[in-house]
Automatic annotation (TrEMBL), chain A:
Domain of life: Bacteria
Record keywords: Oxidoreductase, Thiamine pyrophosphate
Organism: Streptomyces hundungensis
Pfam family, one: E1_dh
Name of the protein described by the UniProt record: 3-methyl-2-oxobutanoate dehydrogenase subunit alpha
Domain annotation Dehydrogenase E1 component: ranges: 62-327
Sequence segments annotated as region (Disordered): 1-32
TrEMBL record, chain B:
Cofactor(s) recorded in Swiss-Prot or TrEMBL: thiamine diphosphate
Organism of this sequence: Streptomyces hundungensis
Keywords (A to Z) from UniProt: Oxidoreductase
SMART domains cross-referenced by the UniProt entry: Transket_pyr
GO biological process terms held by the UniProt record: branched-chain amino acid catabolic process; response to nutrient
Protein name, entry field: 3-methyl-2-oxobutanoate dehydrogenase (2-methylpropanoyl-transferring)
Length: 374, 343
């Protein structure tokens, strides 16, 4: 077989059908080339909101440290730390109203906690005593999702259903940079845009999907640019600038709530720890890169700015640290207690009604447990 | 929304005999009329009424919000259905063809089947996944798979398949009313099978999980379901000439499995053949034969045999007749049941 010379590009140019034109001007959907920032710009800051953000950031950082320590003691099976990403987590939770829904991934424990979920309930999956430790409907937080991006179509479906019922509920779905390569990411964004579903997609671009850097994940100009192809706006924000993330998310949530449709937000941040406690990050990145991001720490950025503006003083800093310490102590104490496991629960909620097959297997396990107890 | 008068007129217009496709459509329509939380979604289900016309008229009657043409994306269809169920709706999704359902497998297996269990019962998934399945209609590649073994191997799913027009209506109503996810396998070569069934005088329908004896017999039991039920009934008639009085058990529900009805039949007859058109190796027949053997060993006069599709990718349409278990292959298996210990 001979390799044929390809004809010139002009020969391939398709003739557009008579009335063809783009249905939407893509320009307004494009993200700004630089991530949006608030800190350091002199923008006005709402003191109450800033102090709330600050307190949650400090509490989140302490939570991450405590949870990581618990893995070393064998109290947690695994913990994917969000240290360095706290601004995204906190802003995500605080951008929502109580009636809204959060769809977190496995790394988003902090967002769930910042939304008011009990820390022990939030850690159930990672502790390993059950898969989900809370009633998703009561807290309006979907189960922490381990398969990548599969929670995104759930967010779309829920938001769509809420709108069909006439409820002004918004769904916020969190995903990582690696998750944007999955088919479910594409399908969810496409459904959301076609249905104009009230959903906000927040990509926490923390630089790595376990060990694979963004450059090997995508060739897009930015992950926010992907929005344009679906017909929704893309927004790029500094993920370590808590007020900026909160503002961009707030605008997207408000837009979705008033029927304006979905938004894709990329928050540029960095995972300071390894993927999980079981991962060795030194195999795929150098300490210089990590140190450079340390200078862009979300807590320090906010603390410095609030202090410089006189919105936060030493007493405020101490109070936030003490509150975080109290939370950590309580968490430690609760996690050090042995979880109460009930093996017969294995068969309890597979189906609404237990089948004969499961009844037989339950009887087998019961007999085994009784034999053990003897 | 129809009024009572409209309904009566519509019912009178339902001239007998009805096809299985019409019965399925009627089941969705009645469920949607009774329960505003029932939503139908899928590719082509709206304006077109489905490629098999099973959703014909639903969008017109209930609006596009209740019967929705989605983008062409099976994971998206089922994934959004999960979110809709989370918010209290009862989605009925159509997968159009058996092999088109595979992109939705992750949603089905990781979320639909497990959500009740993950959330300790706080969040059920009352979703029906309608999958037209099986061959015999001359479909080209990717249009004739029998994927029931994959679904059966996933805890948390119910897997049902009707073989009669009556059952198509009754089972789909049951599936939509069920608080657990149901994979509803529609034998597409029976879509145009007819019966005198009418929704005005519905035949009594056994609930999900109950098998039914379609033909009583004394000398052996044919255990089958879906598209193979008519094959087995025909084989049973043909076997009379050979002096075999065959009982035909229509499983209707693969999960949960009705051990009671199946084993009662096998204990009566002492011999059993499992018949299905999906591949035999790793297929439903192996599970069924093992269950029957474990429970009825002392009643068996012969090993439990399997008549299944070959262990090959579904063949091209011009060769499918050699793959699908037909009457002769069933009769051959029945002849082999004259096995006696020591032979």
């Amino acid at each position: 077989m001979t390799v044929q010379e390809l004809p010139g590009a002009a020969a391939y140019r398709p003739t557009p059908p008579p009335a063809w034109r783009p249905r939407t001007d893509p320009a307004p959907l494009l993200p700004d080339p630089e991530p949006y920032r608030v800190l350091g710009t002199g923008a006005e800051l709402d003191r109450a909101l800033m102090l709330k953000l600050y307190a949650e950031l400090v509490r989140g950082r302490r939570f991450n440290a405590q949870a990581t320590a618990l893995t070393k003691q064998g109290r947690l099976a695994v913990y994917p730390s969000s240290t360095g990403q706290e601004a995204c987590e906190v802003a995500a939770a605080l951008a929502l109203e109580e009636r809204d829904w959060l769809f977190p991934s496995y790394r988003d424990t902090l967002a769930a906690v910042a939304r008011g979920l009990d820390p022990v309930e939030a850690l159930t999956l990672l502790r390993g005593d059950w898969h989900t430790g809370y009633d998703p409907r009561r807290h309006r937080i979907a189960p922490l999702c381990t398969p990548l991006a599969t929670q995104l179509p759930h967010a779309v479906g829920l938001a769509h259903a809420a709108r069909l019922k006439g409820d002004d509920v918004v769904a916020l779905a969190l995903v990582g940079d690696g998750g944007t390569s999955e088919g479910d990411f594409h399908e969810a964004l496409n459904f959301a845009a076609v249905w104009r579903a009230p959903v906000v997609f927040l990509v926490q671009n923390n630089g790595f999907a376990i060990s694979v850097p963004l450059a090997k994940q995508t060739a897009a100009p930015s992950l926010a640019h992907k929005a344009v192809g679906y017909g929704m706006p893309g927004r790029l924000v500094d993920g370590n600038d808590a007020p900026a993330v909160h503002q961009v998310l707030g605008e997207a949530v408000a837009r979705a709530r008033r029927g304006g449709g979905p938004t894709l937000i990329e928050a540029v941040t960095y995972r300071m720890e390894a993927h999980t406690n079981a991962d060795d990050a030194t195999r795929y990145r150098g300490s210089a890169e990590v140190d450079a991001w340390r200078d862009h720490d979300p807590i320090r950025l906010l603390e410095d700015e609030l202090t410089a503006r006189g919105l936060l003083d030493e007493d405020g800093i101490r109070a936030a640290a003490e509150a975080a310490e109290t939370m950590a102590a309580a968490l430690r104490e609760q996690m050090n207690a042995e979880p109460s496991l009930t093996p017969m629960d294995l068969f309890a909620e597979v189906y609404a009604e237990q089948s004969g097959q499961l009844r037989e297997q339950a009887a087998q396990l019961r007999a085994e447990l009784e034999a053990e107890a003897r | 929304m129809t009024t009572a008068t409209d309904n009566t007129t519509a019912r009178r217009a339902d001239k007998k005999p009805a096809t299985m496709a019409q019965a399925l459509q009627r089941a969705m329509r009645d469920a949607m009329a009774e329960d505003p939380t029932v939503h139908v979604l899928g590719e082509d289900v709206g304006t077109l009424g489905g490629v098999f016309r099973v959703t014909d008229g639903l969008a017109k009657e209930f609006g596009e919000d209740r019967c929705t043409d989605t983008p062409l994306a099976e994971a998206g269809i089922l994934g959004t259905a999960v979110g809709m169920a989370m918010y209290g709706l009862r989605p009925v999704v159509e997968m159009q063809f058996d092999a088109f359902a595979y992109p939705a497998f992750e949603q089905l297996i990781s979320h639909v089947s497990k959500m009740r269990n993950r959330t300790r019962g706080a969040m059920a998934m009352p979703i029906v996944v309608r999958v037209p399945y099986g061959g015999g209609i001359g479909g080209v590649e990717h249009h004739s798979d029998s994927s029931e073994a994959y679904y059966m191997a996933t805890p948390g799913l119910k897997v049902v398949t009707p073989a009669t027009v009556e059952d198509a209506y009754g089972l789909l109503r049951e599936a939509i009313a069920c608080d657990d996810p149901v994979v509803f396998l529609e034998p597409k070569r029976l879509y145009w099978s007819k019966s005198d069934w009418s929704p005005e005088a519905p035949a009594p329908v056994e609930p999900i999980g109950k098998a039914v004896v379609r033909r009583a017999g004394r000398s052996a039991t044919l255990i089958t379901y879906g598209p193979s039920v008519p094959v087995c009934l025909e084989a049973a008639e043909a076997a009379r000439e050979e002096g075999w009085d065959l009982e035909v058990v229509d499983l209707r529900s693969l999960v949960p499995f009705d051990d009671e009805t199946v084993c009662a039949s096998v204990r009566r007859t002492g011999r059993a053949v499992v018949v299905h058109e999906s591949s035999g190796f790793g297929g439903p027949g192996g599970e069924i034969a093992a269950r029957v053997t474990e429970r009825c060993f002392h009643h068996l006069e012969a090993p439990v045999l399997r008549v299944a599709g070959f262990d090959i990718p579904y063949p091209p349409p011009m060769l499918e007749k050699h793959h699908l278990p037909g009457v002769d292959r069933v009769l051959d298996a029945v002849a082999r049941l004259q096995w006696e210990a020591g032979h």
